Amino acid sequence: MHLPISDKIELNILHQNSHQAEKNKVKFNNYNLLCLNIMSSPGAGKTRLLEITLEDLSKKFHSAVLEGDMTTNLDAARLEKLNIPVVPITTGRACHLDANMVSGGLKLLEKKINPDLLDILLVENVGNLVCPAEFEIGEHFKIALLSITEGEDKPLKYPIMFREADLILITKVDLLPHLNFDINELKSNIASTNPKADVIEISSITKSGFDLWQDWISKKILKFKNN
Amino acid sequence: MTKCLILSMEEWAEKKNKNKIVVEKINLKIGEFTCVEPISLINTFNAAVLGSWLDSSEITIETIPFEGKCSKCNRLYFPKKENGYKSPCCNFNLEEIISGRELKIASIDFKEK
Lengths: 227, 113
Description:
The structure holds two protein chains of two kinds.
Chain A: E1 5-12, H1 15-30, E2 34-39, H2 46-60, E3 63-69, H3 74-80, E4 86-90, H4 99-112, E5 120-124, E6 141-147, H5 154-157, H6 159-164, E7 167-171, H7 183-193, E8 198-201, H8 210-226
Chain B: H1 2-15, E1 21-31, H2 38-48, E2 58-64, E3 67-69, E4 76-77, E5 96-99, E6 103-112
Parallel strand pairs in B: 1-2
Antiparallel strand pairs in B: 1-6, 3-4, 3-5
């Protein structure tokens, strides 16, 4: 046996995922397809948000969804009713989507539709406020949902998720009159963690805030297409 | 994360002759502002590599402090959750992160058989 050798590599543990995410992004760009990564804890309202959003969005833009779920295709089945291309990605024991899974999902999507015909790809990540924040998938923007029933402190408790997000949607705001919840404290905690994020309050029941959210998406698509 | 670490090690070993080396230590740098709990990473790694070519390897972790820079006065500070990550000098929101996001294999100590 020889003397020990120290190989100083300074290699990012996630570099393989980052490399695949870059490849995904190149593909999205070549298709002129804007990709949004939608993340939140379980039950914050991601799927319902997509159902309502796509009803309107599909009138203006050609949309598709990659639907991440640990064990079922229940969410994908809901979105398929909107007659848009939906590809379920069942992650099994993994608590997040990674770039390889999204690459596989994109290949399945390519069998359903020519992505050149699409404007936007919405990727619903697995419900989890921890791991999805660290794993790039090649998205252009990250959207984090936070429902008011989760508490004002979540941006401080799960700071990576809210730090990484480009837009934070505060969901279920129709419940505000029924809860002892301080939305200003939540906004202050969001600003502390990520002062640069856009923030929109939204309700899937009253549809309040959906005009702002739809406007945000539309502007991003148009800007992306014009670049 | 453990899977990513093992895949990175496999990739590194491909450039060596895997059968002719013994990895002794994998030295990691993990930032405090990441989703990784060091002890959990060590435990899951040890469980995952049982019986594999990495079975005898040990993980060491250097924790990199979470450090921010106050956008108002440019002072460096250690953001605290209890203070909403704000700068203690000017009570400014956390804008610039200087360190703490590292997820790195710094070096690998190995022997040739």
